[in-house]
Amino acid sequence: MSTPDQATILIADDSAVMRTLLSQITKRIGNYLPVTADNGRAALSVISSRQIDVILLDINMPEMSGIDVLAHMQEHHINIPVIMISGSEDIEQAVTCLKMGAYEYLVKPVDPNRLRVTLKNALSESKLRREVTILSTAIANSPLSIVITDLEGTIEYINPAFTTITGYRADEALGRNISILKSGTHDRSLYTKIWTTISKGRNWQGEIRNRKKNGELYWQYTMISPVSLKSSTISHYIAVNQDITEKKNTEKALLASQQRFRELTELLPQPLFETSIDGRITYANAAAFNTFEFTREEFEQGVSYIDLIAPEEHERIARNLKKKLGGATFTDHEYLARRKDGTTFPVLIYSAPIIQDGQTTGIRGIILDITGRKQIEETLRQNQEKYRNLFQSIPDAVIVIDGASGSLVEWNQEARSFFEASPEELAAMHFTALFPEETAARASALFSELTVGSTTTFESNIVTRYGVRIDVSISVGAFASEGAVRYIGIFRDITEQKKSEELIRENIRLKNDFISNVSHELRTPLFSILGFSSTLLEEQDSLDRETFREFLDIIHSESTRLSSLIEDVLTISRIDSGNVTYKKSSIEPASLLAEVCRNLKLRAEEKHIELRLQIAPGPVTIYADPDAFKQAIINILGNALKFTPEHGKISVSQSVSDKSVVITISDTGLGIPKKDLDHIFEKFYRVERPEHEIEGTGLGLPIVKEIIEEHDGSIAVESRENHGTTFFITLPCEREEENQPS
Fold first, then answer.
1. How buried is 583 (Cβ within 10 angstroms: 0-12 exposed, 13-18 middle, 19+ buried)?
2. In sequence order, which residues have a C-beta less than 8 Å from that of residue 655 and are 6 or more positions away?
3. CA torsion sign, 677 to 681 to 685 to 691?
4. Which one-letter DSSP state was computed for residue 392?
5. In this predicted model, what pLDDT tens digit does every residue of 161-212 receive, in sequence order?
């Protein structure tokens, strides 16, 4: 293999002795790498398979002579310098070879000195030919039109792109004057300027409109350069042309579009504006002048957007403008605008950044005067207030239902008491949820049969959120509101006495949910255990050791999970029945915290979660059941690991405050929605997360609360959705009498 600065010489000779001799000579006289071929066909094969710089070619070879090889190279445009080697001094033969493209003709025996000089010159010729080939290829394949003319403008060369753009073939263009492209749309002065510039040896560049062979006009960007060959005298001109017709058409269309935009903006009744990046107004339409009572001259002298806004709004609009320039979206569009005379009026401002070359250069927007709308809103507000006062004063429970969705959209105070529900709970209800299952379908049918303006009254019963069944008389009417059908229902209690609220409470529904959840949670690991154990029994001989081990790991993991679920169920059952016995002793919570963190470290590492433990200095003891204490900590940390995404953080710390031990467990997980915070310690309660399929029964935190409170402690929680959760466990430090034997 040749090195980068080593030339490759092909020696083609049917004589092995000559090939060896020439190889030795070429190695000795220069930094050459000889390769050999024993006949003409073999030489052509070498040429086609690798780069050759110079060929030493014997004339007389069997099958295919050196002259035949020359003819083949000439026919196929193989441009490599060939030095013919012949045993004959036949002048006629030498002339024939040179005419066929041979670089030199040497007679055997070859003089090494002459060969050294000939090879050196041939290599220079090879380099020059290669450069010319590359340049010619580049010109021929350039997408730019390239033309070479003499000093009179007669065309001597065109590349294929010239034909593509103009339609003139080489046989139609060569020998003709470049003026065949003139479009007739430019003054003579332009061409005079061009010829004056290039005839003085300077380059000219600019846009020209030319005419194609078919008469079609086109635009091109042209650069014309004078060419000097062997002296400083100009011999030719070369023009490089880029077709910019599409660009010019686009610019023309853009200008027309801009003109239409300006005309339309001037016709709009709403103020339109554009500002610079510093807030100076650079454009405003006629409506802006009329609305804000500034003259065009005053705008041109310099008016800022801040001059159009009431002073008390300056800080807010500046803050929103900064958000807008930063690419943020927001819905705060209403401001108090100010006219030139200082009077104010309410407006909506909708705007967007002006982007040029990828950079924000200002703001463009529209201003809507909403004075009339505000007046209507105030009148409507007053009427609504009267209606609301009347609505709230009705002694019966009144609800308004959206006809399309069936959701409750409005209710009075009596309805909240009647249905024993908070506003949030009512807003989340479908109206059929107010009825027992056996009467819900009938109630739904009676509502849907109503047409606007019609009413009906029927008796039914409802079940409160605590499961209390109440007999009611219901009057329903249908009315139209904002193009939609709505129902108003008036509920009146007609029972002689309420059934005991203790018979059916909300826990019934929650326990039903719990049974469903536990059933699902139990089936999942049982299905996995049965499935993988069956596979092991049936296919144990065909399973490799790694798969066998993997299946055992899954069975073990699912068994552990099943055991944990059962233990939670048994624990909550013991708590409900009062059969829990705590074996309290003097313990150091710090050591138990460290033990729990060590046991959960692997689970944390599997999710790339940082689990950090921080203990305040100094020994601290509490009087507690160590197993129950660890279970409480494990339940909280288990939730933290479950609800914290990968690469999150969980921290556990212990501190002492006012004779109490405070254990803080924080995570950067999904957090708990505000509406769920008051319920998370309720038995069977689970936070609904439709977007996250996370296992659980809703028993973990109630068990934690029971354990902590049975140890005279308390537990609190703080959480922000999508930011994380922090639990605070407070337990009393051990008193001396607690550790004394009884």
1. exposed
2. 616, 661, 662, 664
3. positive
4. H
5. 899 999 999 899 999 999 999 998 999 999 999 999 999 989 999 999 999 9
Distance, first Cα to last Cα, the chain: 97
Cα separation of 153 and 603, whole Å? 83
**What token pair was written down for 298?**
């005053």
To the nearest whole number, what is the mean pLDDT of the chain?
Answer: 84
H/E stretch holding 242 = strand 234-243
Residues 363, 324 contacting (CB under 8 angstroms): yes
CA distance 558 to 551: 11
Tokens, residue 414: 């009596």
Strands 217-228 and 234-243: antiparallel
If we measure between CA atoms, which residue out of 558, 635, 641 comes closest to residue 607? 641
Q: In angstroms, rounded to a whole number, what is the distance separating the alpha carbons of residues 316 and 323?
A: 11
Q: What is the pTM of this model?
A: 0.35
Burial class of residue 386 in the structure, from the number of CB atoms within 10 Å of its CB (0-12 exposed, 13-18 middle, 19+ buried): exposed
In angstroms, what CA-CA distances link 144 with 141, 160, 219, 320, 701? 9, 9, 13, 49, 75
Phi-psi domain of 228 (left: phi exceeds 0; alpha: psi -120 through 50; beta: other): beta
For residue 501, is pLDDT > 60? no
Pairs from 256-263 (Cβ < 8 Å, separation ≥ 24):
none
Residues 680, 656: contact at Cβ < 8 Å?
no
Q: Using an 8 Å Cβ cutoff, are 119 and 9 in contact?
A: yes
As a residue count, the chain comes to: 742
Q: Which domains are seen in the chain, by residue range?
A: 7-139 (3.40.50.2300), 142-249 (3.30.450.20), 268-374 (3.30.450.20), 394-504 (3.30.450.20), 507-576 (1.10.287.130), 581-739 (3.30.565.10)
Distance between CA 55 and CA 706 in Å, rounded?
A: 97
Per-residue burial over 175-194, b = 16 or more CB atoms within 10 Å of its CB, e = otherwise: eeebeebeeeeeeeeeeeeb
